[in-house]
Amino acid sequence: MAKGIRDKVAILGMGCSKFGERWDAGSDDLMVEAYVEAMQDAGIEPSQLDAAWFSTHIDELGTGKGGTPLSIALRLPNIAVTRVENFCASGSEAFRGAVYAVAAGAADIAIAVGVEKLKDTGYGGLPVGNPGTLAPQVIPNGSAPGNFAQLASAYRAKHGVSREDLKRAIAHVSVKSHANGAKNRKAHLQKAVTVEQVLNAPMIAEPLGLFDCCGVSDGAAAAIVTTPEIARALGKRDLVTVKALQLSVSNGYESQYNGWDGSHFHTARIAAGKAYREAGIERPREQISMMEVHDCFSITELVTMEDLFISPEGQGWRDVLDGFYDADGGLPCQIDGGLKCFGHPIGASGLRMLYEMYLQLQGRAGERQLKDPVFGMTHNLGGAPASNVCSVAIIGQEGA
Amino acid sequence: MVGIAAWGAYAPRLRLSRKAVTEANAWVAPNLRAKAKGERSMANWDEDALTMAVEAARDALGPDDDRSAVDALYFASTTAPFVDRQNAGIVAAALTLEKSIASADVTGSQRCGLSALGQALAAVKGGAARRALVATGEHRRARAASTQELDNGDGAAAFVIDAEGGVAEFLGQGSVTDDFVDHFRGADSDFDYAWEERWIRDEGIVKLVPPAIRRALEVSGLNASDVSHFCFPSTFSGMAAGLAKTVGIAPEAVRDNLALTLGEAGSAHGPLMLAHALEQARPGEVILIAQFGQGAEALVFRVGDGVGNNRPARGVAGSLADRKDETNYLKFLTFNGLVEWDKGMRAEKDNKTALTTLYRNQDMILGLVGGRCRETGVVQFPRTRISVAPNNPGVDTQEPYRFAERKASVLSYSADYLTFSMSPPNHYGMIVFEGGGRIMMDITDVEPGEVDSGLPVKMVFRIKDVDEKRGFVRYFWKAAPDRAAMAKNTALAAE
Predict the structure, then answer these.
(1) Three-state SS letters, B278-300
(2) Does residue A109 form part of some domain?
(3) Quick check: A390 and A265 in contact, CB under 8 A?
(4) pLDDT at residue A149, rounded to an integer
(5) Which residues of chain B are within 8 Å of residue A133 when distances are taken between CB atoms?
(6) A199 and A90 share a domain?
(7) A 248-267 residues inside an 8 A Cβ radius of B
(8) Which of A257, A266, A270 to mutate to test the interface with B (most CBs of B within 10 A)?
(9) Which residues touch A56 (CB under 8 Å, ≥6 apart)?
(10) Strand B286-292 vs strand B295-303: parallel, antiparallel, or unpaired?
(11) Nearest Cα to A381, choosing from A270, A215, A248?
């Protein structure tokens, strides 16, 4: 395996807009909001930026294609802007591009910005996509919740879990995230909910009810990265460095070959294994201090706990019900509210996850602050269980 | 001896209660209460004349998916989805028939199903075809609160014709062509326009059908008294019995026209009654099937010794048994496009079909043909240049592999209330096939709570989407519960 990215790149500054139904803001406004915060945090001038990576998924809703939307919104000094798109993991891709450019020495300081403006469709849920010319002739008339909901039936079948037990476990996932989101002023949804509310909510896609689905939000997030040496030269102390960046992409094994059982993410297991090796982590359940995972739906988060090798296979639902992933549990998860409550502006989400990990590692997370975190992990998924891209990143205290 | 080698039938599962219809319409049409008896078959929203004909044809052809022996195809319907795009071509693609077959759409009158059958028999008799397939289907629309709405049914029947005719030997045909306009449906009309029933009966059926029957019997060298099964579809009560009396056919030979159980499936109804007769007839018996429509068509068959050995898996008997009560008249109206309902913004997506893409992937989309790696035997859908086999991704090693007749089951599923569906919630899931391969696909003919991992399913050819803007219909395959396999599993579990 390659030597990897561990401790080669430091985060110089980060920013994140308020997520939510931002009727007041277009994608350019959201990008500026995240950018201004990140630049102030980094303490640099625009002229010090060498290159930019820009992530957005649904460009046809108004953000537009290419690198120009970012360059124009931020008035960047005619530097390179690379637009990336990798479904809901696009934000992690922007970060990966910026980090690799710095690690390669091609840029001293690079910025990654992700944005999504979803609430201009006129209806709830994600926009109906345009899947090209062949797919609509064969794929089901489905939706994101319907695709992810399928994990539940396969998980039940594989592990012999009853409908009721699994429904209660995924309800706990959402109750926990709502409790966390209630402490986050930037979160889309800031109200706590009860298990009963979750269980009795209208059905969206069996067995997922309304509260099993994440917020569909507008928002942007940004990260500025550089080398640890330049960061120190700029006066930064107690650096947060990148420990691992992995991405695993489906090749049709899950959707076309009779090997995958439908109950887990094949790619997540590959990406997680590689990320732990890259970061030098051998006992993730003990060593990872906190994590932000891609909880687009409650069932996704539940099976991800196993795919990241935190919970033993088939036992994730028990850990969830035991409160292991609660804010006061053994491994706090979605401490900022997650996609569930912070919200899910697609192109920004990967960077938003890193934003919370970064704040926590710097001790700046306010009333959500966890005690002495060392490693923060993010898991950012795009696509659907049967065909997806899965990004796993680990950041932490320099030298840890 | 040219004749029928195999037959098949299909009726949609839903059976609309006539009482539900007449009660809903009693305020405007109280006289229809007299027609409140029984039920009629009701196509699901994703079924039409063509999809039903495909299912009947599959029933006739049997589970063997090598259809290379079929060299001619006749598709008959007055409600085919396309006026100018050969419907038989879609049927042929769905059945993965050879490209070299002769094919034709037969249409234009209620007797076109029998006309197609006659043409297929003539083609085989004349040597132009060796194994001809006749597929008929009908899905007629009728105005709300009309008698047709109650009388009609949806259904299909199919026959395989060859030179041996082991199921039933073809003896003769009689035809009458006369532009007697009992009803019509113009090229731009959705509904029939019918004249007075008494005139149709007395001046039409009574005068035009007997000559066709007499001619058919004469050609066959038989007397009317030789007929043991007389099939004549008509919504007029006692019509078949009256005709039988006129021509001298014994009253006990007159067959049930399925009015109370299925309703009348237009041009497919004569064929359906013939299929039903074959299922109940004994070797040596004579079947006379006639149907009216701007003249008449009459065909005579003698049941052969092969009738017992060539029974279809479903047939009419199976179709009658596989039923589900439907008492929701509004659902019927909605499925038939008779209600302007709020589909929501998610239904606004453009369903324009790229015809280039459709043709390039024709066997995949219409035939459900995937691939099998010659080197590893790994089966996959769709067929691709590089095999999906994880340890041996061979390049260009795949040969076509048909999925439509394979046994399958549900690996994972959801019932989706968010996405647009004509019959929410939309069920779909990962379907895994015995012998390998899997497809994420829509699941149809199910109710909430019916699906779970492990459910046995079969493949059915259905409407995928309708492009209302351009008048195009997209077809693809869906999974439907394999109720025969389910019953078998239940029986095994009980033991």
Answers:
(1) HHHCCCCCEEEEEEECCEEEEEE
(2) yes
(3) yes
(4) 98
(5) 353-354, 356-357
(6) no
(7) 251-253, 255-259, 261-263
(8) A257
(9) A27, A63, A69, A83, A85, A90, A114, A115, A116, A346, A347
(10) antiparallel
(11) A248
What is the DSSP pairing of strand A51-55 with strand A109-116? parallel
Are A197 and A222 in the same domain? no
Percentage of residues in chain A having pLDDT higher than 70: 100
Residue A135 domain-assigned (yes or no): no
Q: A265, A179 in Cβ contact below 8 A? A: no
Nearest Cα to A353, choosing from A214, A169, A233, A170? A214
Q: Using an 8 Å Cβ cutoff, are A210 and A202 in contact?
A: yes
Q: Does residue A127 sit within a domain?
A: no
Q: What are phi and psi of B303, to 5 degrees?
A: -65, 135
Supply the angle between the helices A144-159 and A298-307 in degrees, to the nearest 10: 50
**A222 and A193 within one domain:** no
> Which of A233, A263, A282 delimits the end of a domain?
A233
Q: Are A79 and A52 in contact (CB under 8 A)?
A: yes
Question: Residue for token digits 């690996």?
Answer: B411
Question: How many distinct structural domains can be found in chain A?
Answer: 2
Q: Please tell me the distance from the alpha carbon of residue A60 to that of residue A50, in angstroms, as a whole number.
A: 28
Q: Domain B3-335 - what CATH class?
A: alpha beta
Residue A4 lies in a domain: no
Does residue B378 sit at the A interface (CB-CB below 8 Å)? yes
Can you give the residue ranges of every domain in chain B? Answer: 3-335, 345-368+403-494
Question: Structure tokens of B125?
Answer: 């008799």
Q: What type of residue sits at position A112?
A: A
Helix (H, G, I), strand (E, B) or coil at B360: helix
Alpha carbon A277 to its chain's center: 20
Q: From B147, B298, B140, B84, select the one nearest B208 (Cα to Cα).
A: B298
- Best of B350, B361, B398, B419 to mutate (most A CBs within 10 Å, chain A): B419
Q: Phi and psi at residue B140, in whole multiples of 5°?
A: -85, 140
Question: A154 and A223: one domain?
Answer: no
| Residues of chain B with confidence (pLDDT) below 70 | none
Per-residue model confidence as pLDDT tens digits over B364-394: 999 999 999 999 999 999 999 999 988 888 8
Amino acid at A99: V
Whether A69 and A44 map to the same domain: the answer is yes
The letter for the amino acid at A61 is L
Q: Are residues A63 and A158 in the same domain?
A: no
Cβ within 8 Å, pair B437-A206: no
| Residues 6 or more apart in contact with residue A233 via CB below 8 angstroms | none
**Whole domain around residue A34: which residue ranges?**
10-120+218-233
Token pair 């079969």 is found at B458
How far, rounded to the nearest angstrom, does the alpha carbon of residue A144 sit from its chain's CA centroid? Answer: 16
Tens-digit pLDDT profile for residues B295-316: 999 999 999 999 999 999 999 9
A95 and A179 both lie in a single domain: no
Q: Do residue A286 and residue A309 come from a single domain?
A: yes
User: Model's pTM, two decimal places?
Assistant: 0.96
pLDDT at A1: 58
- Give the domain-ending residue among A172, A198, A233: A233
Residues of A annotated as catalytic (active site), given as ranges: 88, 344
CA distance B445 to B458: 11
